[in-house]
Design goal:
single chain, alpha/beta, TIM Barrel, 12 helices, about 10% strand
């Protein structure tokens, strides 16, 4: 396992991060502990969760994931773990949070309530990386960062990050932090995979110039890059199988991830992986972490058996020939996820 600095902070993290968003729904506590123990033994020290987890978000069980992670943390030395969690963004936009009766916002009131609740559920007195789960571009960044900076000064949070942010939002936030002497976002957590390379268009340059680290989520494109949806397959219990028959928002998400172009590109990537002598899951994970602006790639699992092909990427460096083959597929199938 390799380790990288998170932005300009003093925190160094494993270049694979274990995501936990299915803990409490897709994976029960026993399975979650097995996954966490296996990843820890493999050298992963970085774990990501959120107050709004598990998914799909539901007020009946929101916060359950942090509770599971908190109980597992008691089995390890706290100093050996880098724990990341998130405060929900505003509920009047593209998603309604499952916490605080769907009245969330990125104001001081919500940020303080969220961090105190996360600390209780995680059974810890500090959070290593605290992130805004999604942005609110109608709210003053001075106010958001001012509230977050207070958490850093109080010792409740070590480092700040954002998620699902735009190039404008990340640049604006860094500028505001510099102007007012506030703690800045050291990381950005956005969707990035072989099937979704849009981060490279603009945000990658912001990260390079401002020394902000990407910690990409969904490197397997929601599991699509494993090939499990190929040839019209709809695996029972799989996320997008469920989403296709769920609400309007879930169905739209499923269509974005699972469509004719994304499945065609996935098939091409699987052929590259086979020629390179590795699983497509290994190829996708290795490719994600082989970028200069990436500090750690967030992976996920619902069973410990899924980890073998993911963890195999820890020591893989893709050759120039393999990378060139990948780029040719990306040119042939431009923006498979739209």
């Amino acid at each position: 396992m390799k380790y990288n600095r998170l932005g300009r902070s003093g925190i160094v993290v494993s270049d694979i991060c274990m995501g936990t968003m299915t803990f409490g729904t897709g994976a029960d506590e026993k399975a979650a502990f097995e996954i966490l123990d296996r990843s820890f033994d493999a050298g992963i020290d970085f774990y990501d969760t959120a107050e709004n987890y598990p998914v799909p978000p539901d007020a009946k069980y929101a916060g359950r994931t942090e509770e599971i992670v908190g109980r597992w943390m008691k089995t390890k030395s706290r100093d050996s773990l880098i724990i990341a969690t998130k405060v929900s963004g505003p509920s009047h936009g593209w998603i309604k949070a499952a916490v605080r009766d769907g009245k969330t916002a990125l104001d001081r009131h919500n940020i303080v309530r969220a961090v105190e609740a996360s600390l209780r559920r995680l059974q810890t007195d500090y959070i290593d990386l605290y992130q805004t789960h999604w942005p609110d571009h109608g709210t003053s960044y001075e106010d958001i960062l001012g509230a977050l900076d207070d958490l850093v000064q109080a010792g409740k949070v070590r480092v700040l990050g954002c998620s699902n942010e735009t190039a404008w939002g990340l640049t604006k936030s860094v500028m505001i932090s510099e102007m007012h002497g506030l703690a800045r976002y050291e990381s950005i957590q956005n969707n990035f995979s072989l099937n979704n390379r849009r981060f490279e268009d603009e945000l990658a340059q912001v990260c390079r110039q401002e020394k902000v680290s990407l910690i990409p989520y969904s490197p397997l494109a929601g599991g699509v890059l494993s090939g499990k949806y190929n040839d019209g397959a709809r695996p029972e219990g799989a996320r997008f199988t469920r989403y296709m028959n769920a609400g309007e928002r879930q169905a739209a998400m499923a269509a974005r991830f699972v469509n004719e172009t994304s499945l065609a590109s996935t098939q091409a990537f699987m052929q590259i992986a086979e020629q390179a002598g590795m699983a497509s899951v290994t190829l996708a994970t290795a490719w994600s972490k082989q970028h200069d602006f990436v500090a750690s790639t967030i992976v996920g699992a619902t069973s410990v058996g899924q980890l073998d092909e993911i963890l195999a990427a820890a020591d893989v460096t893709l050759s120039k020939e393999v990378l060139a083959s990948i780029d040719r597929v990306s040119i042939q199938y431009r923006y498979p996820m739209g």
